[in-house]
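User: Let's play a game. I give you a shape written as tokens, and you guess the letters that built it. Ready? Here's round one.
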């Protein structure tokens, strides 16, 4: 199925989780924020949240301020 990651089309398998996407993109363990269709998906839900065809995934690096 096709999804969009940061505006770019990407093909992934059905029943694909946020955690699988982050693993594939070599982003596990990095400080980041992730939203799907303009809704934030907390890290605690990455393993269970399944991505659907046409979803728009935005991933940004979390930067501490001060």
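Assistant: Ready! My guess for every position:
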């Amino acid at each position: 199925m096709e999804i969009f990651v940061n505006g770019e089309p990407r093909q992934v398998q059905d029943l694909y989780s946020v955690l699988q996407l982050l693993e594939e993109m070599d982003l596990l363990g990095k400080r980041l924020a992730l939203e799907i269709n303009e809704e934030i998906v907390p890290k605690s839900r990455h393993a269970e949240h399944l991505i659907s065809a046409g979803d728009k995934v935005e991933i940004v690096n979390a930067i501490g301020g001060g």
